[in-house]
Design a protein that fits this description.
The complex is a heterodimer of chains A (141) and B (558). Chain A has 141 residues and is an alpha/beta fold. Helix content of chain A is 43%, strand content 17%. The relative contact order of chain A is 0.18.
């Protein structure tokens, strides 16, 4: 039996509606054989957490162009509160260096900056999905 | 007429010389290489006198139909474009301080970019505080607007508001003008981001009301401004969002013209006179780094619009035929890698806009890839415009690239491409229908993906990204600080206090009257302004119309 493909949510939280990045990345991950759940912008944190639980997602990709990444620490808290510590969160977009450090400290797995090759994003997401799956199965902490 | 460029060469000699060049070229390295621009037009290695329409009736003269060479007789030689830098940050006081600084440096035109929370239709007390004022100014009340424009002579500066439907910022501004005793007829400015179709398609952040409602409120707004604020441009049709979202330059121009056609049709359907509303239509475009293509895009767009206004809408006043546009250098072309290179990119983009004959220009700060621009980056962006105009002398001659075999030929090809897309949208039932079917969104999405792939494959060089890379430390660049948290908390408290201290019954009455107007067919704009004057806030006006007309959500297409 073929292994289930990685499952990834690609979404935007906050107020910004620039979705070129999230659409291009979603299309790229889908082309790379992953199962992509794509949402329009402006999702509530609670909605994203609920979606992650329902879809049994392994990775959540947050696209941020206009400072919405500042809400990501709240998302990390909400995921932990929901017992979804194993879900890997990545952020892509315009993220200043200082903010990147804060996001990583808050538990974000990786921040992708403009100019990152789509292949690199796909490879990293695949690795993170495998890590998430291993965590779910109790193979790693 | 196809005249040789060098009349001293006889026709046969010219043909002979061309044949010799062709042979020499074909024997050269790289001769077989095919090159196409972003709009998919194949570009030849050389253009000669027979290329391009060469038709004098299409080229004509500046200030004359069909305006290929510019909409005014003197263009930039007579008067520079307006240097309209976008500004918007922090609290109204922060914004006011930056505004006074740029006015002291000679700016005559200003802009107000509100916070993203404002774009989504909320007040400051309804949203997470860490998102407030990070990308624009938090303006919710008449009091906020008074602070934002404190000491600014509203009657003598042109004011561009980034103000999507239902135009609450303009309502707050009109209320301030009335308090100061300034007649609305003296106000000049533009309602930027009034183009709801572009928000439905691409920049969804501005899409506050469902499309049908947003469309109706826009027509209300055009009618209201024509009548009560006649020197105000109620509509700026935006190509920028669609090109930033990935549409090619030809697509962006075509879709923008299709939106303008839709809005003009909507006004005509109300019985409005084209020679009243068309002179107040303005346009707003992205300027990418695809230099000649952008110049040709603008020249072609100008003459297509002139023809549409005159022939399709029957406008008789030449003011209705003029394609007035603001250009903004493309942020998508900028790179986080080696960010100072962005200054060179912005320079090339700005040159394309200037040669394209724009009326107003915003040049991006090189550091927009990190944050809202720092003061230093904003100064360099303005200096870039001044250098191009006064040191490089780009504006000494009107339409200096006019008559270039390449530029004229490319203008013709772009026109053909743009008109073909317009025909496709017309066939789909017009822009309103086309965006509801997702046709436009799919075309843009495909172009965005195709462009990204050309970058990934290395076909399109992006310096520092897929070529000429260097190791660097991102920490060496300064990033704009976020607004001070305590100050922003105080501002939120002030918005709460404003709501607590106003005459609740009066504000409520204003909002109720607005709701009734929205339920019926009356123009909602006078009610929006009255509600603002009665103390209702931006968020409350938006909430009222959201309830009556629906909350804006785009189509989801990947």
């Amino acid at each position: 039996m073929a292994e289930r493909p990685p499952k990834v949510i690609v979404t935007k939280i906050g107020f910004d509606g620039h979705d070129r990045g999230s659409r291009v990345v979603a299309a790229c991950l889908r082309d790379a054989g992953m199962e992509v759940v794509y949402t329009p912008p402006w999702q509530d944190i609670a909605t994203v957490v609920k979606l992650a639980a329902e879809e049994d997602a392994e990775v959540i990709g947050i696209s941020s162009l206009a400072t919405d990444h500042r809400l990501v620490p709240r998302l990390m808290d909400a995921l932990r509160a929901a017992g979804l510590d194993d879900v890997q969160v990545v952020v892509g977009g315009i993220v200043p260096p200082k903010d990147e450090r804060q996001l990583l400290e808050a538990g974000v797995a990786r921040v992708f900056h403009p100019g990152t090759a789509l292949d690199d994003i796909a490879a990293e997401v695949r690795t993170l999905a495998a890590r998430s799956r291993a965590m779910k199965e109790g193979a790693i902490e | 007429m196809n005249q040789p460029a060098a009349p001293w060469l006889a026709e046969t000699e010219f043909a002979e010389a061309e044949r010799r060049w062709r042979e020499a070229f074909d024997a050269s390295p790289g001769a077989g290489k095919r090159i196409a621009n972003r709009s998919g037009i194949e570009v030849q290695p050389l253009y000669a006198p027979r290329d391009g329409s060469g038709a004098n009736d299409l080229l004509g003269f500046p200030g004359e139909y069909p305006y290929t060479r510019g909409i005014y007789a003197s263009m930039h030689r007579g008067r520079s474009w307006t240097q309209r830098q976008l500004i918007g940050l922090g609290t109204p006081e922060d914004y006011n301080a930056r505004l006074k600084e740029i006015l002291a440096h000679g700016a005559s035109a200003i802009s107000l970019i509100p916070c993203n929370s404002v774009y989504r239709g909320y007040d400051a007390d309804e949203v997470p505080v860490e998102l407030l004022g990070t990308c624009g100014t938090v303006v919710n009340t008449v009091h906020d607007m008074e602070l934002a424009f404190d000491g600014v002579p509203l009657e003598s500066v042109s004011c561009a508001l980034n103000d999507p439907s239902p135009f609450t910022l303009q309502a707050l501004l009109l209320a301030v003008a009335k308090r100061r005793g300034i007649a609305w007829t003296r106000l000049t400015g533009t309602s930027n981001q009034s183009d709801c179709l572009s928000h439905f398609v691409a920049n969804h952040m501005f899409f506050r009301l469902e499309l049908a409602g947003a469309r109706r409120v826009l027509t209300d707004h055009i009618e209201f401004c024509n009548e009560h604020v006649p020197a105000w441009n109620p509509l700026s049709v935006v190509g920028q969002h669609m090109q930033q979202a990935g549409g090619t330059p030809a697509e962006a121009m075509a879709f923008t013209l299709c939106s303008a056609i839709q809005y003009a049709d909507d006004c005509l359907a109300r019985g409005m006179d084209p020679d009243r509303f068309l002179p107040r239509f303005t346009f707003f475009f992205d300027i990418s780094i695809s230099f000649f293509e952008e110049i040709a895009k603008f020249r072609a767009g100008r003459r297509i619009w002139a023809k549409l206004a005159r022939e399709r809408f029957g406008a008789k006043d030449p003011k209705s035929w003029r394609f007035k546009f603001h250009g903004q250098t493309s942020g998508v072309d900028l790179t986080r890698q080696q960010p100072l290179n962005n200054i060179a990119r912005v320079t090339a983009q700005a040159m394309a806009g200037i040669f394209g004959g724009l009326q107003s220009l915003h040049t991006d700060g090189y550091d927009e890839v990190f944050s809202t621009p720092t003061a230093q980056a904003a100064r360099i962006a303005v200096a870039t415009q001044n250098i191009l105009r006064e040191e490089a002398h780009l504006t000494d001659v009107i339409d200096p690239l006019g008559g270039s075999y390449y530029v004229e030929s490319l203008t013709d090809s772009m026109q053909e491409k743009i008109e073909a897309i317009i025909a496709r949208i017309d066939a789909a039932g017009g822009m309103y229908q086309a965006v509801q079917q997702g046709l436009v969104q799919r075309m843009i999405g495909e172009s965005a993906f195709a462009f990204q792939q050309s970058v990934e494959r290395g076909e399109q060089t992006v310096v520092g990204v897929n070529a000429y890379k260097v190791d660097e430390n991102p920490d060496e660049y300064t990033v704009l600080d976020y607004p001070d948290r305590a100050q922003m908390d105080a501002h939120v408290a002030r918005v709460r206090e404003y709501k607590a201290r106003r005459y609740e019954a009066t504000a409520r009455k204003g909002l109720d009257a607005l709701a009734r107007a929205a339920q019926g067919k009356d123009n909602v704009m006078p009610r929006i302004v009255e509600a603002a004057e009665a103390g209702a806030t931006h968020g409350e006006i938006c909430a009222t119309l959201r309830r009556e007309l629906g909350f804006g959500q785009p189509l989801t297409i990947v």
